[in-house]
């Protein structure tokens, strides 16, 4: 598998990139001198991993539809993804990949319950993403990518490899001006347009904190249960993809606010992925800040839980250009 050396960053470095105005808007604490993961002071940004060299970006003039001599507007070129990611490790059971030229990204989350039995709970998630990435690499350039077919083949290869554990997963691809997806479980995505939430995937779960999940022993859920669909997208839309470490800790309204403010401040995909992951991490370590996880726990289990959920946090941000 082709992969470049990942960029290592401390959470304190990412923390410094979160504007005070954004902290105030989200009700976060004032900036601290240092934020460290227990036992590991680093997060990994795979902005340079699992991707081919980016093709030349279009300039601003290319965003306007040119007009020919007859006054007819020429069709725009197919959309592309300008993407980056940030991975804040807790148990190191998440995996992800992206290929800008093919317009494909994916994330997977190993089910941590296997960890109690001494099993590598991240093996299946890594297998899924490794297989999916290798299939994209070996495909003929320009070949349309069907997310469901890609996920199905990755699943079959991972099963054949006898990888342990279970995993949720989501894969998205661009096809002209359509964003297509296939996902199973609670790894999720959201699409934003002009600072507003346009579309949000719905988590698949059997009960609270028990998502649908794939494994190789026949006891998992069927790949045919994957949610499949597509939505029309356009230049300027923002795609945020993540594991439940993001979506269990950040409400949709707050994620919308993060994207809107980040766009207004001119954030790059890298900066936005860092900030979103940093905010999710801070909430995950809080015992008082409310989160989707604690809110659902109160509603569905009748407890008084507050605070976030400590977990691996993977965030991919893609600008559609």
Automatic annotation (TrEMBL):
EC assignment: the record states 3.1.3.16
Q: Does the keyword Manganese apply?
A: yes
Query: For the region Disordered, what residue ranges are annotated?
Result: 53-75, 285-306
What keywords tag this UniProt record? Hydrolase, Magnesium, Manganese, Metal-binding, Protein phosphatase
Per the database entry, which stretches of residues form a coiled coil? none
Skewed-composition ranges (Low complexity): 285-295
Q: Gene3D superfamilies, from UniProt?
A: PPM-type phosphatase domain
Reactions it catalyzes: O-phospho-L-seryl-[protein] + H2O = L-seryl-[protein] + phosphate; O-phospho-L-threonyl-[protein] + H2O = L-threonyl-[protein] + phosphate
Protein name listed in UniProt: Protein phosphatase
In which organism is this protein found?
A: Lolium multiflorum (Italian ryegrass)
């Amino acid at each position: 598998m082709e992969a470049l050396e990942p960029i290592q960053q401390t959470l304190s470095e990412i923390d410094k990139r979160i504007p005070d105005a954004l902290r105030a808007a989200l009700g976060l604490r004032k900036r601290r001198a240092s934020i460290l993961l227990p036992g590991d002071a680093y997060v990994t940004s795979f902005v340079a991993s699992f991707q081919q060299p980016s093709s030349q970006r279009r300039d601003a003039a290319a965003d306007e539809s040119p007009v020919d001599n007859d006054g007819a507007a020429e069709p725009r070129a197919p959309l592309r993804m300008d993407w980056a990611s940030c991975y804040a490790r807790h148990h190191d059971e998440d995996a992800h990949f992206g290929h800008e030229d093919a317009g494909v990204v994916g994330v997977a989350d190993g089910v941590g319950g296997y960890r109690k039995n001494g099993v590598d709970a991240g093996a299946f998630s890594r297998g899924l993403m490794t297989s999916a990435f290798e299939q994209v690499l070996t495909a003929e350039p320009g070949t349309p990518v069907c997310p469901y077919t890609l996920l199905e083949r990755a699943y079959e290869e991972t099963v054949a490899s006898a990888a342990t554990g279970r995993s949720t997963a989501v894969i998205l691809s661009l096809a002209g001006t359509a964003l297509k997806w296939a996902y199973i479980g609670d790894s999720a995505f959201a699409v934003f347009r002009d600072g507003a939430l346009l579309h949000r995937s719905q988590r698949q779960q059997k009960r609270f904190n028990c998502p649908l999940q794939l494994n190789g022993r026949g006891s998992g859920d069927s790949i045919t249960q994957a949610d499949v669909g597509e939505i029309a997208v356009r230049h300027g839309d923002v795609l945020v993809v993540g594991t439940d470490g993001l979506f269990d800790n950040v409400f949709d309204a707050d994620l919308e606010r993060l994207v809107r403010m980040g766009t207004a401040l001119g954030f790059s995909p890298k900066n936005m992925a860092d900030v979103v992951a940093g905010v999710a991490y801070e909430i995950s370590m809080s015992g008082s800040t409310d989160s989707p996880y604690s809110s659902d726990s109160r509603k569905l289990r009748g407890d008084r839980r507050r605070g976030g959920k400590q977990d691996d946090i993977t965030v991919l941000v893609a600008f559609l250009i």
